[in-house]
Amino acid sequence: MTKSLHDNICDKLRFSKLYEKYAQTLSNILLYKYGDILNPSDKVQEAFIKLWENCAKVKPEAVKTYLHTTANNMMLNEVKHQKVKFKYQQVKPKDYTNESPEFVMRKKEFSNRFEHVLSKLKEEERVAFLLSKVDGKTHKEVAETLGITKKVAEHRIYAAMKYLKNNLEELNKK
User: Fold this and answer.
1) What are the distances in angstroms from CA 30 to CA 35, 47, 158?
2) Who wins on pLDDT, 35 or 123?
3) Environment class of residue 52 by beta-carbon count within 10 Å: exposed (0-12), middle (13-18) or buried (19+)?
4) What residues contact 165, with CB distance under 8 A and at least 6 apart?
5) Could you tell me which residues come within 8 angstroms of residue 18 by beta carbon, excluding any fewer than 6 positions away?
6) In this structure, are residues 79 and 38 in contact, taking their beta carbons and an 8 Å threshold?
7) What is the rounded distance in angstroms from the CA atom of residue 15 to the CA atom of residue 20?
8) What is the Cα 154 distance to its own chain's centre?
9) CB burial class (10 A; 0-12, 13-18, 19+) of residue 142?
10) What residues contact residue 72 under an 8 Å CB cut-off, 6+ apart?
């Protein structure tokens, strides 16, 4: 099926199947790498537009790589653009909430600690962990998405979980 999915990607039906197969996972990978502020879904859409415009030039076996590379480069360009924007603009945080101040403070502290510990993970462990735990993908699906073996995917996920447990006391409560 994969072979037929990639044959003649300029065909609208096959192109839509490629979109169904890769769009959500690619969007999630970009989200995990760069966060949601930079609109990873938009970059995925733009990558598919670029693929459609160049469908005759892209070899069927290179579609996945083309999409990942294009979307990642778009995100990197957006990061660069945002750095320039933030240099000249001050972002004002929202100053109201319906939650108690103590809850907000504890939630923010945990979130900051979690993000900090998550950022200390190796990129490949972080991406595998988030695909598994946030997206609910099986180890086999994570392996297929990342182009690695199931054993390597399992190792990365377990290594990430072990690191998180060792560095966040809230995850060690029995």
Assistant:
1) 7, 12, 22
2) 123
3) middle
4) 171, 172
5) 5, 6, 9, 51, 63
6) yes
7) 9
8) 18
9) buried
10) 30, 33
pLDDT for 5 equals 44
* Residue linked to tokens 């979109």: 19
The one-letter amino acid at 122 = K
168, two tokens: 């966040």
Confidence at residue 32, expressed as pLDDT on a 0 to 100 scale: 86
Alpha-carbon gap, residue 9 to 81, rounded angstroms:
32
pLDDT, one tens digit per residue, over 4-27 is 444 567 888 888 888 899 999 888
pLDDT at residue number 159? 93
Here the contacts of 165-169 (C-beta below 8 Å, separation 24 or greater) are 167/117, 167/120, 168/113, 168/114, 168/117
* Residue 52 in tokens: 């459609």
> Looking at the whole model, is its pTM more than 0.70?
no
* Per-residue model confidence as pLDDT tens digits over 73-94: 988 888 887 777 766 665 555 6
Beta-carbon contacts of residue 4 (< 8 Å; ≥ 6 apart)? 14
pLDDT at residue number 154: 94
